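Re: the request from the purification team.
They wanted to know what the chain is likely to look like in 3D before they choose a buffer screen. I agreed to run a prediction and write the result into the notebook, where they can find it.
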Amino acid sequence: MRLLSGLGLCLAVAAIMQLSATGAEKETPKKLLRHVVMFGFKETSSEAEVQVVVDAFRNLPNEIPEISGFEFGTNNSPEGLNDGLTHCFLVTFESEADREAYLPHPAHKAFVEVLKPHLEKVVVIDYWADK
């Protein structure tokens, strides 16, 4: 009986070791703080002026080390549900402290000044995402 019990334990340990060797065990996902910013620009703003805003936003990761990831795109949804929002930016932080450093950062404030004359509408939402 002890032999069978010991054999069962050995088989269980071997199975766990096999999972570890193949990477099949689950890792605890790392959470990332996502800062989603969507803009709609004034009709009076030219394409060149909008591009200046986009370029200024896209440069922020070079100036603010707390930004751990950055993506940008323009709306191309065929659904017509964008409500005047045309540009989307996804800024990623690893912590709330990083976001807290970003918001009042001089480079972010300078970007907001570039944006203001052209901004018609903005939506911002932040959320924690599993990686």
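For the purification team: Confidence is low (pLDDT under 50) at residues 3-17.
Please add any questions underneath this entry.
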